[in-house]
């Protein structure tokens, strides 16, 4: 089996579970957070720095690599691992979501999606078959079915039609998935914010027996409690011996809440994106290091953090670099934010092992300050 999930234990206090995901490029301890390297690079990070901060698996995007440099070039280079010199697991998203968040002039039909490149305006298309073949060429360990992520909010009838089409597309992806590669194709459950559509989508996809299941169509602007409700409505219909991946999530609170509800994998651009405007996730909550109040602050960004940036540089120095538009400043804030989330998942796994994730949640929220950050 290309990718195999091993359930280690379930937390006695919550629905969280400790697992190990075996892949051709190594084993991943779950629950895990995947740094996002959309264009075959986690912005500003070297593979060595990612390994030092503890990244177990990273994500890249089919849409972006299909447009530039093209999947044939990546294949010619020996595949994504070789191309970007990353020898640990990689997951690629399938492109549907990115088409909708990036390109103009897109048109959905039963066949697939037609769109214009956001780079040069070329008329392009992606179908379940072509998106799967592109991912086979890129060579990630885990690839995603081609789906539509319905906008939020959306009419019930639209979400119903879209979700049923996504299930038909999933079957087409399975048929197109070349078995010659050691890659695992994960299905993506849709259904918007409707429990009945979520259940039907999960039943449709699990009848196709994928090696793993993602929950898409969430973290699209809905209130977080909707997202948590949809997890609770979906996960009971997913098999316990397969990994569950919540796409596009996220913030420290959402990673804890998702883990408590049985999610094993997360990805989000949040830590790297906010790092680039000088916003940090710290044990005391969010901090904007470019604020004037840190001008003469010679302490570390986060006193409780053991990352390279916090061990060697002060708030004053990092604030100066960002104000002076020095690249190194954003590299340091990125290193810190990624380490913060990767390390948060280390603590989540320890809490599950010791059956105290519920208690950990209370303690973390007390210090971090609750809600959406
Ligand atoms: N919030 C997100 C993020 C990424 C997604 N990727 C796919 N393929 N589908 C979705 O519904 C997503 C949702």
Give structural attributes:
binds 2,6-diamino-3H-quinazolin-4-one; globular; alpha/beta; single chain; 373 residues; 41% helix; 16 strands
How does this structure look, described?
There is one protein chain. With 373 residues, the chain is an alpha/beta fold. The chain contains 15 helices and 16 strands. It has helices at residues 47-53, 62-67, 71-76, 80-84, 96-102, 128-138, 156-176, 195-206, 224-234, 252-260, 270-275, 308-312, 315-323, 327-353, 357-368, and strands spanning 4-10, 17-23, 26-30, 32-34, 58-61, 90-93, 104-108, 113-116, 123-126, 142-144, 184-189, 213-215, 244-246, 265-267, 279-282, 285-288. It has an 8-stranded parallel sheet with strand order 4-14-13-12-11-10-6-5. Strands 1-2-3 form a 3-stranded antiparallel sheet. A 3-stranded antiparallel sheet has the order 7-8-9. Helix 7 (156-176) packs parallel to helix 8, helix 10 runs parallel beside helix 14 and helix 14 runs antiparallel to helix 15 (357-368). The longest helix is centred in the last third of the chain and has 27 residues, at 327-353. The mean pLDDT is 96. The site of 2,6-diamino-3H-quinazolin-4-one (DQU) has 15 residues, from helix 5.
